[in-house]
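Think of the structure tokens as a kind of shorthand, similar to the way a musician reads notation: each symbol stands for something richer, in this case the local conformation of the backbone. In the example below we present two proteins back to back. Begin with the first one, reading the sequence and then the tokens, and try to describe in your own words what changes along the chain.
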Amino acid sequence: MFKLIRVERRGPAWYTALAALVVLALSGFVAAGKAGAADPGTDWTARTSAADNIWESVSYGNGLFVAVSSNGTDRVMTSPDAITWTGRSAAVNNNWQSVTFGEGLFVAVAGSGTGNRVMTSPDGITWTTRTSAADNQWESVTYGGGQFVAVARSGTGNRVMTSPDGITWTSRSSAADNDWYAVTYGNGVFVATAASGTGNRVMTSPDGITWTSRTSAADNTWNSVTYGNGLFVAVSSTGTGFCVIPGAAMGSRLRPGRRSLRNRSAASGIPAQYPRLAGQYAEYMESQLTAFRSGARANNASMTAVSARLSDREIKAVADYIAGLR
């Protein structure tokens, strides 16, 4: 049985906050898969790509998966379900390295081309070239905090570029001229990882503009970084027995992530297929509800619909209440 959240009085806001709590518990929102399904990411099925290209990156947005490649005739492919893929023409046949989605727009960056190393698309099908801030080897692009941010492995003092709309780009100075291979956004901070540098293969930024070097756990070739469940995680293609770094030390603004969802029991009264929310960190819950509301997280339609109706105060009320449950 659910206890009721005291928001002030039992008006519309009170019922909205209660609805959020109920949907959180019943939709399995903290877990990536559907309630009752096997743990996501453990079982994989091979699918036929639209072409045997060198596919470099994939993103999801607006109900569509979009992948880009560095070779081939059609250097974009799209799929509504990740099963059936269709080849699409890129705006130009550059070596497309990375694609992301934000503000209703797909944005891709390339490592080749002259003044056209960015392309954008509202639907993943029709693409338009954009002028890159510099003809660097752009390796990765992400979106967060109202800003597109790309990082490069070449250039002098300009290995970052930012854009508020994916169209107009501005050069930024990276913390060091390392070979920056990956960038991501989470919990209010951008994090980039590199394949070169001495003890400084991580850099962070609160806005994508001003960057600070961070001490990397090892001088490996850190190829990719992502954020999830309150944690930044990077992986590398070099090193011995130390190719993964969970990044509590990566970001200056990191907060506690989620607690384990595995501690379930019949005695708790929660069926095994549902996540146990009691005691989840308030800041983690608040960040995820905010992400659903903004559209940054879009893997659960129920949570998106409910979160859209919550104010900042109501989100905090739900998060604080859940954190206090035992």
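Once you have a description of the first chain, move to the second and do the same.
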Amino acid sequence: MERTYVLVGVGAASLVALAAFVATRRASAAGVGEPEPRVLVDDLLEEISVTARRIASSTFVGPVEAWAAPEKYRASIRGAETANSLPPRLLERLLYQESRYRADIISGAVVSSAGAVGIAQIVPRWHPDVNPLDATASIRYAAKYLAQLRTQFGDWRKALAAYNWGPGNLSKVNTKIPLWLSQTPTETRRYVEQITGDVPV
């Protein structure tokens, strides 16, 4: 399985410091003739050092970064997730699935075949109370709507399916059986599976 690493400067610095500390302790112990602790093995020290250098130099980025929201939207997304008790980053991942954070989609220059518009791909016909071209308003609306769908259908996977396929359509499916998702369209199955593959709920 491929490892996912989050690049955090403090974390990298801590690993570097830990490696240096371990090396210093080893040298000190050896200098006074004390037996070397078994936990301070060469492989462990080398693993810490290599990992720290790789993180610090940003030579690799985990797949989580592929769907991360642009900086200008992150505060709004985090706030909306918190205000509506959404799992961390679920809305962020949903919005990526909807718009890929593409400027031409967010601006409304590109409209879906279903008439969905903006960052959250809202259909004005069904959601007249929000301006889908206002990214901040759409983020807040999408978070509130997703939370409502979760209350209606009982869990986040079903809420995602309803967001994609529509609550009316999902209501016609027997969602009480384990294989309920198999009764939805291929697009909806992929939608739910791809989002929850990155943000388990």
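Compare your description with these statements about the second chain. The first helix runs from residue 9 to 31.
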